[in-house]
């Protein structure tokens, strides 16, 4: 029962902004909707601009692959491609 309650709470809180949390506005470009719909289900979008100074095109490809293969992000292949393209074009160093 505790597991069900914890899982329900996690789902409800996933889309909740907390008082001290900064609202992240990503660059408006093709694919931003895929990033917002898929990525922020598990973590803040603040990681994108924060990591953009370190990641080039190959780095973003690796990050998207890691999120899916290592962390089990439920992202389909078409969305993964769109996410990687968006990140490379808009946040690649």
Textual characterization of the structure:
The chain has 93 residues and is mostly helical. It has helices spanning 2-14, 32-39, 47-51, 57-69, 77-91. Helix 2 packs across helix 5 (77-91) and helix 4 (57-69) packs antiparallel against helix 5 (77-91).
Task: Tell me the number of strands.
Answer: 0
What's the overall average pLDDT, rounded? 86
- Counting helices, strands and paired strands, the structural category is mainly alpha
| Helix residue percentage | 55-70%
Query: What proportion of the residues form beta strands (DSSP E)?
Result: under 5%
Largest sheet: none
Radius of gyration: 14 Å
Helix tally equals 5
Topology as a string of helices (H) and strands (E): HHHHH
* Distance, first to last CA: 46 Å
Shape: globular
Low-pLDDT segments, ≥5 res? none
What's a concise summary of this model?
The chain has 93 residues and is mainly α.
């Amino acid at each position: 029962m505790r597991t069900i309650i914890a899982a329900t709470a996690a789902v409800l809180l996933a889309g909740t902004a907390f008082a001290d949390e900064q609202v992240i506005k990503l660059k408006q470009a093709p694919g931003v909707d895929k990033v917002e719909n898929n990525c922020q289900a598990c973590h803040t979008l603040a990681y994108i601009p924060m990591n953009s100074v370190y990641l080039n095109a190959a780095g973003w490809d690796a990050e998207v692959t890691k999120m899916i293969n290592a962390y089990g992000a439920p992202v389909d292949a078409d969305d993964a491609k769109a996410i990687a393209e968006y990140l490379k074009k808009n946040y690649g160093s």
